[in-house]
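User: I'm curious whether this sequence folds into something compact or stays loose and floppy. Could you predict its structure so I can see for myself?
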Amino acid sequence: MILGDIRNYLKQRNTVSLQDIAIHFDLSEESAALAVEYWIKKGKVRAIAAACGASCGSSCGSAGDHYQWIEQAPIHWYR
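Assistant: Here's the prediction. I'll summarize afterward.
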């Protein structure tokens, strides 16, 4: 399933742009955004500001176009 593949891709790369996801999985950016939104709602991914760099090719400070997988420790419920 594509959601699992995107999860694994984000885990491996840690920080990924929406365009990278779309290109890697041969999806439209809208479809990639819907998949990423699923993981955001699950609390597994967060949008982050793009890091400025020479290879960026766009203006800096555009938050929301890069995403990061969030590793969380499991919650243990005790009585």
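Summary: The longest helix spans residues 29-41. The two ends are 37 Å apart (CA to CA).
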